[in-house]
Amino acid sequence: MHATRRALVLAALWLVAFSIQPGAALDASPSAILANPDRFDGQAVTIQGTVTNLRETVSRRGNPYYTFDLSDGTRALRVFSFGKAACRVGVATIEGTFEKVKQVGRLTFHNEITATQVTCR
Hints:
- This protein has one domain (23-120): CATH 2.40.50.140.
- The protein is 23% helix and 50% strand.
- The protein is globular and about 35 Å long.
- The relative contact order is 0.18.
- It is of the alpha/beta class.
- A 5-stranded mixed beta barrel has the order 2-3-4-6-5.
């Protein structure tokens, strides 16, 4: 009886351990993130929305980067990414890390996602 019970407990633990994806991105919206930024601070997130206010530029060191606002129709978050913008207008899905406050040298940014992937829809 104990061997069967032990086998069931081990099987249950194995299922739990391998069904949880460590570091999995949280699905959210700009409104949800901005309503509770402490919950999402430093977390990997996946959000979808409409691209507005695209700005492409080059850093002093010669690295191209871009920023844009991603709106869910109610609220918008700023998105930052290196390279050239994949989406100029329309709907995009963003994977990245949300930071409530981000320091870059002497500059301070608030409520920004550093994108690791931008997919146009």
